[in-house]
Hints:
The structure is a single chain. By secondary structure, the protein is of the alpha/beta class. The chain is 38% helix and 19% strand. The protein has 10 helices and 16 strands. It has helices at 2-23, 50-58, 100-109, 127-140, 165-179, 193-203, 248-261, 276-285, 294-299, 303-318; strands at residues 28-30, 33-35, 39-41, 64-65, 82-85, 88-91, 118-122, 145-149, 183-186, 209-214, 218-222, 224-225, 230-231, 239-243, 266-270, 289-292. The strands form 4 sheets. An 8-stranded parallel β-sheet has the order 3-16-15-10-9-8-7-4. It is globular and about 50 Å long.
Amino acid sequence: MNHRKEEWNNRLGMDVFFVTIIMADLSTTVAGVKLPNLLFNASGVCCQTEEDLQLMIKSESGSLITKSATYEHREGNPSPRYVPLATGSINSMGLPNEGYQYYLNFAKKYDYKSKKPLFISLSGLSLADNKKMCEAFVAANLPCVLEINFSCPNVPGKPQLGYDIEAMENALNVLAPIIKKPFGIKLPPYFDIAHFDAAAAVFNKFDNLAFVTCINSVGNGLAIDFETETALIKPKDGFGGLGGAMVLNTALANVNAFHRRLKNKQVIGVGGVTSGKEVFLHVLAGASAVQIGTQLKEEGPSVFARIHKELTAIMKAKGYKSLDEFRGKVKTL
């Protein structure tokens, strides 16, 4: 009898544990598309080639996004163009990619019956290029979701469109009617409340602009080797975008600022994620999904399984059963 009682207690314990795991629901929806969990790569990491993208498919990410595509293939900037730092990373990649047709072909043969939706990043060097690329994807009539990159800081001679509010609105006036379906834009970090207000006022004019992704790397930092007194990367005299742990607080501010200001739109958070804790903070600030860049670059695709497990444990410890229960609910003093 005691043996049977112990057996049932063990079973009950396993059932309770199983229910607890199930109740920590990490699924989310972005642009009307369901993601089994909120994690995926930041465009630029583990996504340039089909081999990279297959690694993402096999990982425990909830989605994947392609490398930001230009109209033509680009080699990008000369090396060294990426260096890990004690507090993150610096890069000046210069948009190396295979050209938009490569990613359009990948999108055409992608298995959309898979649980992972596909996001496509486009970063034309001109509005005309973005227009042609969007038209090609629209003509293909695919279920993938477009993200237009308004924020690459590492192409010499090309300013970030996201810092020119008027030009950004002009671009959206051209692209939004072409795309028709829900889409998103990737933004540079903003540092002034007036800029949050001005950008949000523009974004709220476009009904099918469904999400903003923020932030891209903090542009034009400089990392210098103390011993050799030399810049660590070669392009742009050593100037490059900063990422990783050092940009977390800037990323959280941008996520929260747009979460508060945008009507019927979502925010994808990216910046400073090294563990489940930072993902939790991004969601608390208002993120509907979270992308990982520097940590993915350094750790590889296994990072998704680790962070998924860590976030599940955090939610369990705090008593949250779903992301909706704490999304955007950061407390203020």
